[in-house]
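User: I'm putting together a teaching handout on how sequence relates to shape, and I'd like one worked example. Could you take OmpA-like domain-containing protein from Paraherbaspirillum soli, show the sequence you're using, and then write out its predicted structure as tokens right after it?

Assistant: Happy to. First the sequence, then the structure tokens directly below it.
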Amino acid sequence: MKRIICFIAMSILISSASAMSFGGLEQDIQFDDNSSQIGSDDIRSIVDWKIRSVEMGGIDYEIFLYKDDQLGISSNLVERRRDAIVSLMNTLGIQITKVVVVDQQSKRRESGLSKKQTNTVTIIFQPPCTKTLSCGPQPAKNVDTIRE
């Protein structure tokens, strides 16, 4: 009977581990039109998110920005936004490992993003387990086998 219960418990653990998702891996910053100022609400939100990401062991932090000349999001504005985010993250002790700028003008027909969406910058982090493929429950080490 104990073996059956152990088998059922292990099956549940394995199935829940494969469906596991990571909440809070992304943080959005909404900029006003033609602005590179990070609002105080966004700063507070980033500080809270940073604390959660450190608890999860965040190691790689990436920034995704949109460029769209037709919507007034020029290369210069994108650079100022990037610099503002990198400066804030450096102040929080976080090193940005990658910056991606998506040119929406060439992709406008495909994505159809609004100006509000293109004014949003996303910061993403990866916990170490995503590189080692060890996310989820880990088997216990040095545990005696179950005896009947």
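A couple of points you could highlight for students: The helical segments are 2-18, 40-55, 75-91, 108-111, 115-118, 129-132. The longest strand covers residues 60-67.
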